[in-house]
Amino acid sequence: MADVIVVGAGNAAFAAAVAAREQGASVTVLERAPRELSGGNTRFTAGAMRFAYDGVEDLRRLMPDLTDAEVAATDFGAYPQAQFFEDMGRVTEYRTDPELCEQLVTKSRETMLWMRDRGIRFAPIWGRQAFKIDGRFKFWGGLTVEAWSGGPGLVEAWTQIAAREGIEVLYGARAVSLVCDDAGVHGVRVKQGGRTRDLACGAVVLAAGGFQANTEWRTRYLGPGWDLAKVRGSRFNTGDGLRMALDIGAMPYGQWSGSHAVQWERNAPEFGDLGVGDGFQKHSYPFGILLNARGERFLDEGADFRNYTYARYGREVLKQPRQFAWQVFDAKVRHLLRDEYRIRQVTRVTADTLEALAAKLDDVDAARALETIAAFNAAVRTDIPFDPNVKDGRGTEGLPIPKSNWADPLDTPPYEAYAVTCGVTFTFGGLRIDGRAAVLDVDLAAIPGLYAAGEMVGGLFYENYPGGTGLMAGAVFGRIAGTSAGMVAAGRSGD
Ligand SMILES: Cc1cc2nc3c(=O)[nH]c(=O)nc-3n(C[C@H](O)[C@H](O)[C@H](O)COP(=O)(O)OP(=O)(O)OC[C@H]3O[C@@H](n4cnc5c(N)ncnc54)[C@H](O)[C@@H]3O)c2cc1C
Question: Has this prediction a pTM greater than 0.85?
């Protein structure tokens, strides 16, 4: 019998397992997926993590490998806690739970250092989050650091740390329900290799992800049409952890009708493909325009840095006829397109004239598309200089749907267009936890022996999300949940 059982083997789960172990608890991790597909959504990420830092010295503490030459060639800026709070507030329309948000922001830097001290390495995200202007990189959008070797590297690092710490990980082990009585949770019923058994423990940490991979729950909670979305990541996050907790009276919390959803390759498979990772996403839309089947624009592509719009624009694409759009660019911005535009598995058309391009846009009203582009080109404030590193204010004038920044006439061939649909990343609805990450019941009392972390925590995100916050939240609340579970478990498991 383990003191603590952690359900899931993504970033939040491993943070919880390691933190519980540090409290002296013995820990067993249950991972539903086989070893080669393990790691949940975490494995699909680029490993980008948002945390508060006051300047380059904070980054040097996190990344001691940074050289003087790299520091000299880069403007890392700062991302103070106040800015992180402001971003969380603004993008969630000030609905984010203040206590959860406070923990996330104020514990972000110390949690990154805690991860580094355990052996997780980080690197600056040159290229994706900083463009080179006049020989110097400048970071923008509060997202500066990623885990070494991205999501796969992060999962691998956690797996090695867990092994070193003597944490047992059972693969192909699906938690099906919680073992509990009036005194709280005492174990997990698990199905592994076709056999169901009960594993006893002193405390359980649920870190089994959201319900984005469950078509029926998506339709039920996110609404009609969401059954047609692609799933960006793990097919194993079907809401099991949420169901298990709700079954014993846990309180649902947060925006159950909301999700993180992005523009995603139109012809991508139903679930994420670990061979492609996050390569199906198409995040350079601020430098082009989007056209739907009617040949019309339908959102402000340049409303903000992509970090602050990308997570809600998938939903906007889902609302369009036949759930697709084309992202259109000209040669002037080609060098700004992220590397995901150059993968093999991409639906792209190119042409030397706009007329030829419009004719190649599958399922689009070509005549109307040309009118839209002409109107857009005529509306651009070309008197304002284009600058991808700042919100340049180079917008459009007089269009029913403006483009607020980085507007540039489509006038330089060759032209390119990429077909996208909606890819759902994770769902926002979850469980209600207290400051120790204990799961609350419907009377708002803590359920003894039950903790939650990661995508399963409700109340942090509403409507939108600042890029890089999912892994950070998973680490912060995973560490808190594991610490709490570890502290109480040894005592309880002796009951
Ligand atoms: C393509 C993509 C790119 C992303 N990029 C970023 C990024 O760069 N930065 C960022 O911050 N966020 C990113 N995200 C979001 C990020 O992946 C999540 O917010 C984060 O990984 C969630 O961590 P988690 O531990 O809660 O869940 P997960 O990592 O999904 O882990 C859940 C675990 O639970 C397991 N599980 C499920 N059901 C059961 C069960 N019944 N029994 C046992 N185990 C079970 C799963 O197999 C999995 O191991 C991205 C997501 C995707 C899909």
Answer: yes
